[in-house]
Design goal:
CATH topology of the largest domain: FAD/NAD(P)-binding domain
Distance between the termini: 36 Å
Structural class: alpha+beta
Number of helices: 12
Number of strands: 21
Mean pLDDT: 85
Radius of gyration: 22 Å
Low-confidence stretches: 100-119
Bound molecules: flavin-adenine dinucleotide
CATH class of the largest domain: Alpha Beta
Strand content: 25-35%
Shape: globular
Helix content: 25-40%
CATH architecture of the largest domain: 3-Layer(bba) Sandwich
Protein backbone atom coordinates (compact mmCIF):
# COMPACT_ATOMS: atom_id res chain seq x y z
CA UNK A 1 0.00 0.00 0.00
CA UNK A 2 1.30 3.46 -0.88
CA UNK A 3 2.21 5.88 1.89
CA UNK A 4 0.58 9.27 1.64
CA UNK A 5 2.91 12.22 2.27
CA UNK A 6 1.43 15.72 2.43
CA UNK A 7 3.92 18.56 2.04
CA UNK A 8 2.66 21.93 3.26
CA UNK A 9 4.47 24.90 1.66
CA UNK A 10 5.82 25.01 -1.88
CA UNK A 11 8.80 27.26 -1.32
CA UNK A 12 12.15 26.06 -2.67
CA UNK A 13 12.59 23.50 0.12
CA UNK A 14 9.04 22.03 0.05
CA UNK A 15 9.10 21.77 -3.75
CA UNK A 16 12.50 20.09 -3.79
CA UNK A 17 11.42 17.62 -1.09
CA UNK A 18 8.16 16.78 -2.93
CA UNK A 19 10.07 16.16 -6.18
CA UNK A 20 12.69 14.03 -4.42
CA UNK A 21 10.05 11.95 -2.62
CA UNK A 22 8.10 11.36 -5.86
CA UNK A 23 11.29 10.55 -7.77
CA UNK A 24 12.37 8.03 -5.13
CA UNK A 25 8.87 6.59 -4.74
CA UNK A 26 9.95 3.00 -5.32
CA UNK A 27 12.88 3.30 -2.89
CA UNK A 28 10.40 4.65 -0.30
CA UNK A 29 8.28 1.61 -1.17
CA UNK A 30 5.37 3.43 -2.80
CA UNK A 31 4.36 6.97 -2.11
CA UNK A 32 1.68 9.49 -3.08
CA UNK A 33 2.65 13.12 -2.57
CA UNK A 34 0.22 16.01 -2.09
CA UNK A 35 1.71 19.51 -2.12
CA UNK A 36 -0.35 22.27 -0.49
CA UNK A 37 0.54 25.93 -1.10
CA UNK A 38 -1.40 28.96 0.07
CA UNK A 39 -0.36 31.03 -2.97
CA UNK A 40 -0.90 30.31 -6.67
CA UNK A 41 1.83 27.95 -7.81
CA UNK A 42 2.58 29.10 -11.35
CA UNK A 43 5.57 29.95 -13.49
CA UNK A 44 6.54 33.61 -13.10
CA UNK A 45 8.18 35.72 -15.75
CA UNK A 46 11.68 36.26 -14.38
CA UNK A 47 13.12 39.73 -14.35
CA UNK A 48 16.17 40.14 -16.55
CA UNK A 49 14.27 39.13 -19.68
CA UNK A 50 14.41 42.75 -20.81
CA UNK A 51 14.40 43.70 -24.51
CA UNK A 52 17.94 43.44 -25.99
CA UNK A 53 18.41 47.20 -25.92
CA UNK A 54 17.11 47.61 -22.37
CA UNK A 55 19.01 47.25 -19.11
CA UNK A 56 18.61 43.89 -17.42
CA UNK A 57 16.91 43.72 -14.06
CA UNK A 58 17.30 40.81 -11.68
CA UNK A 59 15.49 39.59 -8.57
CA UNK A 60 16.79 41.06 -5.31
CA UNK A 61 16.03 37.75 -3.58
CA UNK A 62 18.92 35.53 -4.60
CA UNK A 63 20.42 32.32 -3.20
CA UNK A 64 24.07 31.34 -2.95
CA UNK A 65 23.54 27.66 -3.79
CA UNK A 66 26.28 25.39 -2.39
CA UNK A 67 27.75 22.57 -4.53
CA UNK A 68 25.93 20.04 -2.28
CA UNK A 69 22.56 21.73 -2.89
CA UNK A 70 23.32 21.91 -6.61
CA UNK A 71 23.89 18.14 -6.68
CA UNK A 72 20.59 17.59 -4.85
CA UNK A 73 18.71 19.93 -7.23
CA UNK A 74 20.29 18.06 -10.16
CA UNK A 75 19.10 14.76 -8.69
CA UNK A 76 15.49 15.99 -8.76
CA UNK A 77 15.94 17.29 -12.32
CA UNK A 78 15.47 20.98 -11.45
CA UNK A 79 19.00 22.38 -11.78
CA UNK A 80 19.10 21.35 -15.46
CA UNK A 81 16.07 23.63 -16.07
CA UNK A 82 17.91 26.78 -14.97
CA UNK A 83 19.24 28.70 -17.97
CA UNK A 84 23.06 28.86 -17.80
CA UNK A 85 23.06 32.60 -18.28
CA UNK A 86 21.10 32.97 -15.03
CA UNK A 87 23.70 31.15 -12.92
CA UNK A 88 26.69 33.12 -11.64
CA UNK A 89 29.49 30.99 -10.22
CA UNK A 90 31.26 32.32 -7.14
CA UNK A 91 34.96 31.49 -7.57
CA UNK A 92 36.39 33.30 -4.54
CA UNK A 93 35.26 34.93 -1.32
CA UNK A 94 36.77 38.04 0.20
CA UNK A 95 36.04 39.17 3.73
CA UNK A 96 37.12 42.40 5.39
CA UNK A 97 37.24 43.35 9.05
CA UNK A 98 36.17 46.79 10.20
CA UNK A 99 39.58 48.45 9.84
CA UNK A 100 38.35 49.12 6.31
CA UNK A 101 35.36 50.95 7.76
CA UNK A 102 37.70 53.29 9.60
CA UNK A 103 39.48 54.17 6.40
CA UNK A 104 36.19 54.83 4.65
CA UNK A 105 34.93 57.03 7.46
CA UNK A 106 38.25 58.77 7.91
CA UNK A 107 39.34 59.39 4.36
CA UNK A 108 36.71 58.08 1.99
CA UNK A 109 39.63 57.60 -0.33
CA UNK A 110 39.67 54.80 -2.89
CA UNK A 111 43.29 53.79 -2.64
CA UNK A 112 43.40 54.10 1.13
CA UNK A 113 40.28 51.97 1.40
CA UNK A 114 41.69 49.29 -0.89
CA UNK A 115 45.01 49.12 0.94
CA UNK A 116 43.33 48.82 4.31
CA UNK A 117 41.03 46.21 2.79
CA UNK A 118 43.90 44.05 1.61
CA UNK A 119 45.28 44.00 5.14
CA UNK A 120 42.23 42.12 6.42
CA UNK A 121 41.27 40.37 3.31
CA UNK A 122 40.65 36.58 3.45
CA UNK A 123 40.72 35.13 0.01
CA UNK A 124 39.36 31.65 -0.64
CA UNK A 125 40.78 31.18 -4.11
CA UNK A 126 39.39 27.93 -5.47
CA UNK A 127 39.54 26.38 -8.88
CA UNK A 128 35.99 25.06 -8.48
CA UNK A 129 32.95 27.21 -7.77
CA UNK A 130 32.32 27.82 -4.06
CA UNK A 131 28.65 28.57 -4.75
CA UNK A 132 26.28 29.48 -7.55
CA UNK A 133 24.13 32.59 -7.36
CA UNK A 134 20.58 32.04 -8.61
CA UNK A 135 17.58 34.34 -8.34
CA UNK A 136 14.56 33.14 -6.35
CA UNK A 137 12.15 33.43 -9.32
CA UNK A 138 14.52 31.54 -11.61
CA UNK A 139 15.01 28.72 -9.08
CA UNK A 140 11.27 28.53 -8.38
CA UNK A 141 10.50 28.39 -12.14
CA UNK A 142 12.94 25.50 -12.56
CA UNK A 143 11.35 23.60 -9.66
CA UNK A 144 7.79 24.30 -10.89
CA UNK A 145 8.69 23.27 -14.48
CA UNK A 146 10.11 20.03 -13.09
CA UNK A 147 6.94 19.54 -11.03
CA UNK A 148 4.76 19.94 -14.15
CA UNK A 149 6.96 17.42 -15.99
CA UNK A 150 6.72 15.02 -13.06
CA UNK A 151 2.90 15.29 -13.00
CA UNK A 152 2.75 14.86 -16.80
CA UNK A 153 4.95 11.74 -16.52
CA UNK A 154 2.37 10.20 -14.19
CA UNK A 155 4.40 10.43 -11.00
CA UNK A 156 2.26 10.18 -7.93
CA UNK A 157 2.25 13.86 -7.09
CA UNK A 158 -0.57 16.39 -7.02
CA UNK A 159 -0.81 20.07 -6.15
CA UNK A 160 -3.47 21.94 -4.20
CA UNK A 161 -2.67 25.64 -4.35
CA UNK A 162 -4.49 28.70 -2.99
CA UNK A 163 -5.25 26.66 0.12
CA UNK A 164 -3.82 26.57 3.58
CA UNK A 165 -4.23 24.21 6.51
CA UNK A 166 -6.80 25.20 9.12
CA UNK A 167 -6.47 22.26 11.53
CA UNK A 168 -4.61 19.01 12.09
CA UNK A 169 -5.90 16.07 14.11
CA UNK A 170 -3.92 13.03 15.15
CA UNK A 171 -5.09 9.44 14.81
CA UNK A 172 -3.18 6.33 15.81
CA UNK A 173 -1.93 5.48 12.32
CA UNK A 174 -2.08 8.82 10.52
CA UNK A 175 -3.02 12.50 10.73
CA UNK A 176 -5.89 14.39 9.15
CA UNK A 177 -5.52 17.90 7.74
CA UNK A 178 -8.54 20.16 7.37
CA UNK A 179 -7.96 22.75 4.65
CA UNK A 180 -9.21 26.32 4.80
CA UNK A 181 -11.76 25.45 2.06
CA UNK A 182 -13.20 22.68 4.26
CA UNK A 183 -11.74 19.61 2.49
CA UNK A 184 -10.04 16.90 4.58
CA UNK A 185 -6.89 14.99 3.66
CA UNK A 186 -5.45 12.04 5.47
CA UNK A 187 -1.65 11.75 5.62
CA UNK A 188 0.76 9.09 6.87
CA UNK A 189 3.31 11.88 7.10
CA UNK A 190 2.87 15.66 7.09
CA UNK A 191 5.99 17.58 6.08
CA UNK A 192 5.85 21.19 7.29
CA UNK A 193 7.87 23.26 4.78
CA UNK A 194 5.86 26.43 5.28
CA UNK A 195 8.68 28.79 6.23
CA UNK A 196 9.80 30.61 9.36
CA UNK A 197 6.22 31.55 10.37
CA UNK A 198 5.13 27.93 9.93
CA UNK A 199 1.43 27.41 10.59
CA UNK A 200 2.01 23.64 10.75
CA UNK A 201 4.49 24.14 13.59
CA UNK A 202 1.87 26.15 15.47
CA UNK A 203 -0.99 23.72 14.75
CA UNK A 204 1.18 20.83 15.99
CA UNK A 205 1.85 22.75 19.21
CA UNK A 206 5.61 22.85 18.59
CA UNK A 207 7.22 25.90 20.18
CA UNK A 208 10.33 27.60 18.84
CA UNK A 209 13.23 29.45 20.41
CA UNK A 210 13.54 32.80 18.64
CA UNK A 211 16.06 35.61 18.76
CA UNK A 212 15.14 38.96 17.24
CA UNK A 213 18.24 40.65 15.83
CA UNK A 214 16.31 43.93 15.92
CA UNK A 215 17.86 44.66 12.58
CA UNK A 216 16.89 44.42 8.93
CA UNK A 217 18.58 43.11 5.80
CA UNK A 218 18.45 45.85 3.16
CA UNK A 219 18.52 44.25 -0.30
CA UNK A 220 19.05 45.82 -3.72
CA UNK A 221 20.87 45.22 -7.02
CA UNK A 222 23.46 47.49 -8.65
CA UNK A 223 25.38 47.77 -11.87
CA UNK A 224 29.11 48.27 -11.18
CA UNK A 225 31.78 50.10 -13.17
CA UNK A 226 34.46 47.53 -12.24
CA UNK A 227 33.96 43.78 -12.92
CA UNK A 228 33.08 41.65 -9.90
CA UNK A 229 35.34 38.82 -11.16
CA UNK A 230 32.92 36.25 -9.71
CA UNK A 231 34.00 37.14 -6.19
CA UNK A 232 31.56 37.28 -3.25
CA UNK A 233 32.58 40.11 -0.94
CA UNK A 234 31.65 40.79 2.67
CA UNK A 235 32.48 43.68 4.97
CA UNK A 236 32.12 43.29 8.72
CA UNK A 237 31.75 46.89 9.76
CA UNK A 238 31.44 48.15 13.30
CA UNK A 239 27.65 48.34 13.23
CA UNK A 240 26.60 46.36 10.16
CA UNK A 241 27.50 43.58 7.73
CA UNK A 242 27.53 44.35 3.99
CA UNK A 243 27.62 41.56 1.38
CA UNK A 244 28.04 41.78 -2.41
CA UNK A 245 27.02 38.74 -4.46
CA UNK A 246 27.92 38.61 -8.17
CA UNK A 247 25.13 38.60 -10.79
CA UNK A 248 25.23 38.43 -14.60
CA UNK A 249 25.60 41.59 -16.70
CA UNK A 250 28.22 43.17 -14.38
CA UNK A 251 25.66 43.53 -11.62
CA UNK A 252 25.68 42.63 -7.94
CA UNK A 253 23.03 41.86 -5.36
CA UNK A 254 23.64 43.36 -1.94
CA UNK A 255 22.48 42.29 1.50
CA UNK A 256 23.26 44.94 4.10
CA UNK A 257 22.34 43.94 7.67
CA UNK A 258 21.79 47.15 9.63
CA UNK A 259 19.82 48.47 12.60
CA UNK A 260 16.15 49.14 11.89
CA UNK A 261 16.73 52.88 12.18
CA UNK A 262 19.58 52.78 9.65
CA UNK A 263 17.46 50.60 7.33
CA UNK A 264 14.70 53.23 7.37
CA UNK A 265 17.29 55.94 6.62
CA UNK A 266 18.79 53.96 3.73
CA UNK A 267 15.36 53.29 2.22
CA UNK A 268 14.54 56.99 2.34
CA UNK A 269 17.61 57.96 0.26
CA UNK A 270 17.26 58.79 -3.43
CA UNK A 271 18.79 56.22 -5.83
CA UNK A 272 22.03 58.12 -6.41
CA UNK A 273 22.74 58.89 -2.76
CA UNK A 274 21.94 55.30 -1.78
CA UNK A 275 24.28 53.96 -4.50
CA UNK A 276 27.07 56.31 -3.39
CA UNK A 277 26.56 55.33 0.28
CA UNK A 278 26.93 51.62 -0.58
CA UNK A 279 29.93 52.29 -2.86
CA UNK A 280 31.70 54.39 -0.17
CA UNK A 281 31.03 51.74 2.50
CA UNK A 282 32.74 49.17 0.27
CA UNK A 283 35.67 51.56 -0.38
CA UNK A 284 34.57 51.62 -4.02
CA UNK A 285 35.85 48.06 -4.39
CA UNK A 286 33.73 47.74 -7.56
CA UNK A 287 33.96 51.40 -8.60
CA UNK A 288 30.78 53.41 -8.96
CA UNK A 289 27.36 51.80 -8.47
CA UNK A 290 24.04 52.40 -10.24
CA UNK A 291 20.84 51.18 -8.56
CA UNK A 292 19.03 48.66 -10.79
CA UNK A 293 16.16 47.52 -8.57
CA UNK A 294 13.74 48.53 -5.88
CA UNK A 295 15.31 48.66 -2.44
CA UNK A 296 13.58 46.61 0.24
CA UNK A 297 14.19 45.33 3.71
CA UNK A 298 13.57 42.07 5.56
CA UNK A 299 13.45 41.71 9.36
CA UNK A 300 16.16 39.39 10.71
CA UNK A 301 15.38 36.65 13.20
CA UNK A 302 17.01 33.44 14.37
CA UNK A 303 14.66 30.58 15.09
CA UNK A 304 14.92 26.93 16.10
CA UNK A 305 11.90 24.70 16.62
CA UNK A 306 12.18 22.81 19.90
CA UNK A 307 11.11 19.60 18.15
CA UNK A 308 11.47 18.95 14.46
CA UNK A 309 9.42 15.76 14.49
CA UNK A 310 6.30 14.30 16.04
CA UNK A 311 4.47 11.09 15.15
CA UNK A 312 3.47 11.45 11.45
CA UNK A 313 4.95 14.96 11.21
CA UNK A 314 8.33 16.49 10.30
CA UNK A 315 9.47 20.09 9.87
CA UNK A 316 12.04 20.99 7.21
CA UNK A 317 13.70 24.22 6.01
CA UNK A 318 12.90 27.54 7.65
CA UNK A 319 9.93 25.93 9.46
CA UNK A 320 12.52 24.04 11.57
CA UNK A 321 15.30 26.64 11.69
CA UNK A 322 15.92 30.13 10.35
CA UNK A 323 19.34 31.76 10.60
CA UNK A 324 20.94 35.15 9.94
CA UNK A 325 21.43 35.50 6.16
CA UNK A 326 25.06 36.57 6.69
CA UNK A 327 26.39 33.16 5.64
CA UNK A 328 23.85 32.73 2.82
CA UNK A 329 23.09 29.22 4.07
CA UNK A 330 19.36 29.18 4.95
CA UNK A 331 18.10 27.52 1.79
CA UNK A 332 21.15 25.23 1.66
CA UNK A 333 20.31 23.94 5.15
CA UNK A 334 16.73 23.38 3.98
CA UNK A 335 17.81 21.37 0.91
CA UNK A 336 20.04 19.26 3.16
CA UNK A 337 16.99 18.60 5.40
CA UNK A 338 14.93 17.55 2.37
CA UNK A 339 17.68 15.18 1.22
CA UNK A 340 18.11 13.70 4.72
CA UNK A 341 14.37 13.14 5.21
CA UNK A 342 14.06 11.31 1.88
CA UNK A 343 17.08 9.20 2.85
CA UNK A 344 15.58 8.32 6.26
CA UNK A 345 12.31 7.27 4.57
CA UNK A 346 14.23 5.11 2.11
CA UNK A 347 16.41 3.47 4.73
CA UNK A 348 13.58 2.55 7.10
CA UNK A 349 13.05 -1.10 7.91
CA UNK A 350 10.29 -3.04 6.21
CA UNK A 351 8.37 -3.02 9.52
CA UNK A 352 8.35 0.80 9.81
CA UNK A 353 5.84 3.25 8.36
CA UNK A 354 6.89 6.67 6.99
CA UNK A 355 5.39 8.43 10.01
CA UNK A 356 7.08 6.30 12.70
CA UNK A 357 9.06 8.27 15.27
CA UNK A 358 12.04 5.93 14.90
CA UNK A 359 12.27 6.91 11.21
CA UNK A 360 11.65 10.61 11.78
CA UNK A 361 14.14 10.79 14.66
CA UNK A 362 16.78 9.42 12.30
CA UNK A 363 16.16 12.47 10.09
CA UNK A 364 16.24 14.89 13.03
CA UNK A 365 19.47 13.37 14.38
CA UNK A 366 21.10 13.61 10.96
CA UNK A 367 20.34 17.29 10.56
CA UNK A 368 19.97 19.03 13.90
CA UNK A 369 23.66 19.42 14.68
CA UNK A 370 24.56 20.85 11.28
CA UNK A 371 21.76 23.44 11.45
CA UNK A 372 22.65 24.34 15.06
CA UNK A 373 26.35 24.73 14.16
CA UNK A 374 25.59 27.05 11.26
CA UNK A 375 23.14 29.03 13.41
CA UNK A 376 25.75 29.38 16.16
CA UNK A 377 28.57 30.34 13.80
CA UNK A 378 26.57 33.08 12.09
CA UNK A 379 25.12 34.27 15.40
CA UNK A 380 28.56 34.29 17.07
CA UNK A 381 30.26 36.03 14.16
CA UNK A 382 27.59 38.69 14.17
CA UNK A 383 28.03 39.28 17.92
CA UNK A 384 31.80 39.45 17.47
CA UNK A 385 31.60 41.92 14.62
CA UNK A 386 28.98 44.20 16.07
CA UNK A 387 30.68 44.52 19.44
CA UNK A 388 32.13 47.89 20.39
CA UNK A 389 34.34 46.30 23.04
CA UNK A 390 37.97 47.16 22.09
CA UNK A 391 39.62 43.79 22.87
CA UNK A 392 36.94 42.06 20.77
CA UNK A 393 37.55 44.51 17.93
CA UNK A 394 41.23 43.54 18.00
CA UNK A 395 40.33 39.84 18.06
CA UNK A 396 38.08 40.09 15.05
CA UNK A 397 40.58 41.90 12.87
CA UNK A 398 43.42 39.70 14.04
CA UNK A 399 41.13 36.72 13.58
CA UNK A 400 40.83 37.41 9.88
CA UNK A 401 44.58 37.81 9.51
CA UNK A 402 45.28 34.65 11.50
CA UNK A 403 42.74 32.74 9.40
CA UNK A 404 44.55 33.95 6.32
CA UNK A 405 47.79 32.41 7.53
CA UNK A 406 46.23 29.06 8.40
CA UNK A 407 45.32 27.18 5.23
CA UNK A 408 43.80 24.30 7.24
CA UNK A 409 41.42 26.67 9.06
CA UNK A 410 40.45 28.32 5.81
CA UNK A 411 39.69 24.96 4.23
CA UNK A 412 37.58 24.05 7.27
CA UNK A 413 35.47 27.16 6.69
CA UNK A 414 35.37 26.42 2.97
CA UNK A 415 34.30 22.82 3.46
CA UNK A 416 31.33 23.97 5.50
CA UNK A 417 30.42 26.65 2.94
CA UNK A 418 30.55 24.10 0.13
CA UNK A 419 28.44 21.34 1.74
C1 LIG B 1 17.86 38.82 2.98
C2 LIG B 1 17.98 37.33 2.92
C3 LIG B 1 18.97 36.75 2.10
C4 LIG B 1 19.11 35.36 2.04
N1 LIG B 1 20.10 34.83 1.25
C5 LIG B 1 20.27 33.49 1.19
C6 LIG B 1 21.30 32.88 0.39
O1 LIG B 1 22.11 33.55 -0.25
N2 LIG B 1 21.41 31.53 0.38
C7 LIG B 1 20.55 30.74 1.11
O2 LIG B 1 20.70 29.50 1.09
N3 LIG B 1 19.56 31.27 1.86
C8 LIG B 1 19.39 32.62 1.93
N4 LIG B 1 18.40 33.15 2.69
C9 LIG B 1 17.49 32.26 3.41
C10 LIG B 1 16.41 31.70 2.51
O3 LIG B 1 15.66 32.74 1.91
C11 LIG B 1 15.47 30.79 3.30
O4 LIG B 1 16.23 29.92 4.10
C12 LIG B 1 14.61 29.94 2.32
O5 LIG B 1 13.74 30.78 1.58
C13 LIG B 1 13.77 28.92 3.10
O6 LIG B 1 13.00 28.20 2.20
P1 LIG B 1 11.69 27.43 2.68
O7 LIG B 1 11.15 26.76 1.45
O8 LIG B 1 12.00 26.63 3.89
O9 LIG B 1 10.69 28.56 3.18
P2 LIG B 1 10.01 29.76 2.36
O10 LIG B 1 10.88 30.21 1.25
O11 LIG B 1 9.59 30.75 3.39
O12 LIG B 1 8.71 29.08 1.70
C14 LIG B 1 7.59 28.73 2.48
C15 LIG B 1 6.40 28.46 1.53
O13 LIG B 1 5.29 28.02 2.30
C16 LIG B 1 4.12 28.73 1.91
N5 LIG B 1 3.23 28.79 3.09
C17 LIG B 1 3.40 29.50 4.22
N6 LIG B 1 2.41 29.26 5.08
C18 LIG B 1 1.58 28.36 4.48
C19 LIG B 1 0.38 27.72 4.87
N7 LIG B 1 -0.19 27.97 6.05
N8 LIG B 1 -0.21 26.82 4.02
C20 LIG B 1 0.36 26.58 2.82
N9 LIG B 1 1.51 27.17 2.38
C21 LIG B 1 2.10 28.04 3.21
C22 LIG B 1 4.62 30.09 1.48
O14 LIG B 1 3.71 30.74 0.60
C23 LIG B 1 5.93 29.70 0.77
O15 LIG B 1 5.71 29.36 -0.57
C24 LIG B 1 18.24 34.54 2.79
C25 LIG B 1 17.25 35.10 3.60
C26 LIG B 1 17.14 36.49 3.69
C27 LIG B 1 16.08 37.08 4.61
Amino acid sequence: MKSHITVVGAGPVGLAFALAAARNASAIRGVRVTLIERQTLALARPLGDAPPSGAKHFDTRVYAISPGSKTFLESVGAWQKIPNERITDVRAMQVWGDEVGKEVDGKGDNEAGKNAGEKNNICFEESVAVAHIVEHTVLMNALIERLHASIAAGDNIRVIDNESVAAISEQKTHRTLRLSGGAEISADLIVGADGAHSGIRGLAGITAKTFDYESDAVVANFKTTLPHENIARQWFLGDSVLAFLPLPDQQISIVWSVTKMRAAELLSLDAETFAETVAATSSHALGELTLMSKTSRVALKKLTAHNWVQPHLALIGDAAHAIHPMAGQGANLGFADARALVLALQKRSSFSAVGDMRVLREYERARREDAATMGMVTHGLRELYLSDFKPLKRVRNRGLNVLNKMPWAKSLVMNHAMK
